[in-house]
Write a structure and sequence with these properties.
Order of helices and strands: HEEHEHEHEHEEEHHEH
CATH architecture of the largest domain: 3-Layer(aba) Sandwich
Distance between the termini: 30 Å
Number of helices: 8
CATH superfamily of the largest domain: Glycerol-3-phosphate (1)-acyltransferase
Oligomer: single chain
Largest sheet: 9 strands, mixed
Length: 245
Amino acid sequence: MAAYFDRYLRRHLTALRLSRWGAPDLRGHPGPLVVYCNHPAWWDAAVLIVLAERCFPDREGYAPFDAQMLAKYGVFGRIGAFGVDPASRRGAAAFLTASRRILSRQERALWVTAQGRFSDVRERPLGLRPGVAHLPEVAPDALFLPLALEYAFWSERGAEAFAAFGPALAGRDLLALPRAARLERLEGALTGVLDRLSADVMSRDPARFVALTEGRRGVGGIYDLGRRVAAALAGRRFEPGHGKG
């Protein structure tokens, strides 16, 4: 499925880019991992699957999924998603029970869209759901890794997806804080990563990123075929993209 979504991103987006400063660093941590992120777009699920395969290939990935949406997109239930009702106490309890079981194994990672709803990347405060602040209680040995996601159009017809991981937070350090302060700490860390990523995106400089996947550039179809033939007849190298390189 990671290979499928990699092809899917290549087909529909110009690129998935990871900030050069935003690569995850888990050296010295053999335990479980919680990756919590903002939730800007429908594309997030596909992007998270590709990031999981590229950045953490040795970890089993799991993710909570709105139960109604999981019934609609059942394929995700076969690759680690589990249904929860985000609007009820029973759903919150089910989320924590499943998370406890998942994070009991050190080779596992839990991916959480912590806003629990689609939200613009410019929205402040982020309004993280309180459930993410309960996770240190069920998995004190876990490492909490903030992940910022953003999408933008640069010089090509397709959108670009951008990602960056921030410095990890130790579960036991978070557990020492009251829940309200714990949630504030988690949200502050993610906000900082989002702000830094947005500055890179606004620069429109691909050199600030590593391209994890790259799709087709140019207009495509008959129009680009004509341009390719014209370039060949003129002895020029065909450059399909609107921008350079």
